[in-house]
Amino acid sequence: MEDAQTIEGRRPMGAAESIGRRIVTGALSPGTTLPTLDLLAGEFSISRLSMREAIKLLAGKGLVSSTPRRGTVVRPRHEWSRLDPQVLNWQVGGEPTAAFVRDLFELRRMIEPEAAALASQRATREGLAEIGQAFALMAAADAQAPQSVRADVAFHQAILKATGNEFIAALAPTIDASLTLVFEVQRGAGRDLRNFIPGHEAVLVAIRRGDDAAARHAVHALLARSEADAMDGLRLLDGRKVNDVRAAKGGQLA
């Protein structure tokens, strides 16, 4: 059973998450002034002190700023910490959009091929072992199982860490949430999921061999297939939603 301190510590995060989702989904637009601390505390049934902590959490993610004269104001989108894992989760709401997938894969194509090339030259024995272990777990798991998704994310994170570059390695935890969401959508694409294992294996083999050009090429090929699967998965989800609406309305769309 949770103690009172643990429960109290969760309250600011719950309020921050609720407000954060409103901000990143556009319900609260940039420039909007939030209600006073007292009003917000009443809305979330928490103390004024807990509400202040929630606002601090949001400010730390670049979503709001507070001044004595203006109060708490939603900051412009370009000032948000867009790679913050919680901001990413709040933004997609558990289901990525096509625009989100395109943006993510543009970022991945800029970073991951070169990261794999660096890892092929710099990875330590421990780094290679971590990449290999993630691949083995992914290959052994059912492609539709959560273990497969977690292992897939761990594989890509391990490559970033194996570069030996602290700035690149720092991206590993920030991409966790976004990759997890996209990989879950990919698994629902209905394509032959056995094909994604050889693509990952090609990356692993190239890194182990120390072949930077082959590692770079293998990641580019893997990302091309991965993005296509993700887009197919989104179309499948959209199709299911249309069918659900038809079923709810007796087979006809309004």
Looking at CATH, the homologous superfamily of the largest domain is GntR ligand-binding domain-like
Mean pLDDT: 86
Structural class: mainly alpha
Q: How many helices in DSSP terms?
A: 12
What does the overall shape look like? Answer: elongated
How many DSSP E strands? Answer: 2
The low-pLDDT segments are 1-9, 241-246
Radius of gyration: 21 Å
State the separation between the terminal residues, measured CA to CA.
49 Å
How is the biggest beta sheet arranged? 2 strands, antiparallel
- Give the total of domains: 2
Q: What order do the strands of the largest sheet run in, or round the barrel if closed?
A: 1-2
CATH class of the largest domain: Mainly Alpha
Provide the CATH topology of the largest domain: Four Helix Bundle (Hemerythrin (Met), subunit A)
Strand content: under 5%
Percent helix, as a range, is over 70%
Helix-strand topology string: HHHEEHHHHHHHHH
Task: Please name the CATH architecture of the largest domain.
Answer: Up-down Bundle
